[in-house]
Amino acid sequence: MLIQKVRIGDLLIQEGKITKQDLQKAIEVQKSSPNHRRIGEILVEEGLVNEEIIIEVLSKQLNIPIINRIEPDFLLLRKIPAKILEKYLVLPIKETHKNIEVAFADPLDIEAQNTIARYFDKPIKILISSQKEILKHINQLKNREKAHTIIEQMKKEVLGGSEETENEESATMKFIKYIVALSISKGASDIHIEAEENALIVRSRIDGFLQEIMTIEKELFPAVAARIKLLSGLNISEKRKPQDGRFSMELNGNHFDFRVSTLPIATGESIVIRILDKRNITKDLESIGISHDNLEKWKKALKAPNGIVLVTGPTGSGKSTTLYASLNKIKSVEEKIITVEDPVEYQIKLVQQVNVNEAAGLTFAAALRSILRQDPDIIMIGEIRDLETLEIAIKAALTGHLVISTLHTNDAVSAVSRMIDMGADPFMVGAAVVAIEAQRLARRICPHCKIKTKPNAALFEVLKEKIPEIENKQFYKGKGCEYCNNTGYKGRVLISEIFTLDDELESIIAKNSPIDELKKKAKQKGYKPMFIDGLVKALQGETTLEEIFRIVKVEL
User: Fold this and answer.
1) 128 forms bridges with which residues in the sheet?
2) Fewer Cβ atoms within 10 Å of its own Cβ: the N or the C terminal residue of the chain?
């Protein structure tokens, strides 16, 4: 059943979501626009209403079901060109014996309804979904169409029994290069290739979140898995045990290294390819995004003649980037720097790097004991995992070496209690530690679609209780566009805090005082929790308030 023409502005006013003045402002913007744009789109861009509210109002007023997560029918998608789906922001998702269910970003678009209805011999049933959700699947369809030729070649090669010639690259290798290049172009950090029950699914981790980029026939998985294992120096016949390997590849004139992990799962295997992009690791310390005040504190700590400086945070928070940028900052021909890593991911000039090999008995602790006999000035430990490694690191710090390492803790001050909980003597911890940096990566607002917005009301109320003046501040978000894959985010921004020690704080640690007492005294001396750094970057328009609440505990 097609919906007759209704004005979205009138519906929003009727529901009390916008005022007549808001609607008039949007109409004026529409009149001055070179292309005819939807009123709803303008209202969202101007920060007068959220897309979620528009969807709720339309659903209520017009009795249209909302579909939040779309699982499209690829047979239906093939009946409509991708350019038509993209033009009208629609997606056919299901065929029943009565009708074709179609998701619309704008169910009031009569032209879109009539156009889509002509492609089917059954009536269409209109559903409503977000523009972001629909565009996500349209982009997947476009990528699928680009890869269609390669996949068809793979089917002939794998299922048809054809063989690659000596001078021609196999279709399977072309497919692997395609998904790698596509993932790198999107700024991915990892590629997940998974054998599900009925399909081979490829997903990329982009800005910390997995995004599905392709789904193809499961019968092609064995060939893809075997080729990746062959590239990585793994046993292609071993499917019962996890394996780890590496390979390299030249793409568009750039050299990339890849770390591969395979894991047996109930439906076959899961393969994860970590993209090791040297362009990210060779950054200057000043360019990785640490706020000015925190950067000055960190650079001062790196100049200490001896002691421990720690980078803390969860997996995927950019600790390696900060470590390597720090080493690039302080390396010189006058000082000997040795690292012990598991594994060595990037090679750095003027730095001797040791690869942990636990199977051969070369653990972090064993490597450190040998390193101390190599007369180093600076030691970098990839991660402090156990008491033995920690005690050797403290000993090195107290005997004239600068030790740089990482630890998994929620904030900088908690790293102190973490080391004591591991079994280290509180007095030794206080004496050895110079500074601790904690960090997270927040998604950066896409600069191509950045607009003003009103933050989530519940989150805003939390802030207003503690910072009343925040009510007059402006916040931003990305509305979603082709540059950011319609997520509203492109890239990530570093959120950090620095905890530096002095004699008084060292004394508190030596007494093994409660962590709250240590944190209270640190705040009196200028320590600012990570949430404050995130809030400043949200106010500067680098990220969203919602993103800061997602990744950092509220602490002012």
Assistant:
1) 66, 104
2) N
- What residues have CB less than 8 Å from 82, skipping those under 6 apart? 138, 141, 142, 145
Question: In DSSP terms, which residues pair with 65 in a beta bridge?
Answer: none
Q: Which residues contact 63 (CB under 8 A, 6 or more apart)?
A: none
The model's pLDDT over 424-480, given as tens digits with 9 standing for 90+, comes to 999 999 999 999 999 999 999 999 889 988 888 888 888 877 787 787 888 999 988
Report pLDDT digits (tens) over 217-233. 888 999 999 999 999 99
Smallest Cα–Cα separation from 479: which of 51, 110, 1?
A: 51
pTM: 0.71
Closest by CA position to 209, among listed 538, 479, 456, 443: 443
Q: Return the structure tokens found at 245.
A: 């390997």
Chain centroid to Cα 38, Å, comes to 31
458-467 burial code (b ≥16 CB/10 A, e <16): ebbeebeeee
- 461 to 18, 333, 472, 542: CA distances (angstroms): 20, 54, 13, 21
Is the CB of residue 113 less than 8 Å from the CB of residue 99? Answer: no
